[in-house]
């Protein structure tokens, strides 16, 4: 198949899923065309069967807000025509589904068929999408899509409730490449000493440091853990809450125990170094960072929100708490990190969950099957 993929190419779960999906599909022989304003950050540019088409937005002085959505629609239509795309797959509804709709209409007027699929990721529905200024057009974009997928059952139900969308929404959960995201003992032995001493535990958090991730809770939990168990914290990513986290670390005088490693491409090399992942988010429609950690045999202490319980089974492959319950999360982290056998059992269960249910080898064929069905009915 020839597939166009559009996403936010920056540091964020939806862009990661879209990019990894493109990489996996290309490895299975499909021709993948990314259509975005810059190359998705996890692409190396050396992958076979992957093409990148930049969306350039002209910045005429009259435009206080350059119309990216229109430039995107134009580029989508051009690429689809020049490369005979079979379908477009857009990740994150706003504004991508509306641009795809325009591209489909432009091509239809010239007798070309271009079905498009929208994948809903979370904040496009739970935050941005329900803002009154975007709701009607987001709902329209979803309803006009030839296929709609959601990354969890939670998000499907939330979309139905919040938008009153009646059309079919297929749940296709996020995935991870279990051969790439895996704990390799040699690599761990070589790299872990850079981040923690042998007698110390290493905790990790990975996000875009937005308020929804509650980075302050990560630092608060770590501060309490560090009082009972010698430990270090690795913070992967960057974003608006970073300086608050740095300030809080100084207040607790634990700044020397925290590694702010910033945005990293190869998180598969860093995650396996850790003993425990902290994900105290206010909301997660799925929680991709937790899945990536789980595949690396790192269990998560997280919050019972959104789609997280569809990934983490409390007490089996991780532990779930109410949002903001720092005391309970700290106590559980200390208990788990102090009990080697329990920690190992949970690490094994985390890896097994990733392997049994969320490996790309299982999920990508589900996408392929869905593409076939959408193309067949349009
Ligand atoms: O969580 C973010 O701030 C980023 C956001 C995105 O769209 O990039 O993440 C959403 O999509 C991820 C990939 O499907 C999910 O794993 C996240 O749970 C989801 N975030 C929220 O629902 C808050």
Automatic annotation (TrEMBL):
InterPro entries (UniProt xref): Glyco_trans_1 (IPR001296), Glyco_trans_4-like_N (IPR028098), Glycosyltransferase_grp1 (IPR050194), Thiol_BshA (IPR023881)
UniProt GO molecular function: glycosyltransferase activity
SUPFAM superfamilies: UDP-Glycosyltransferase/glycogen phosphorylase
GO annotation (BP), single: bacillithiol biosynthetic process
Domain Glycosyltransferase subfamily 4-like N-terminal: 11-179
Domain Glycosyl transferase family: 196-352
NCBIfam families for the chain: thiol_BshA (TIGR03999)
Designated name of the protein: N-acetyl-alpha-D-glucosaminyl L-malate synthase BshA
Species of the source: Edaphobacter acidisoli
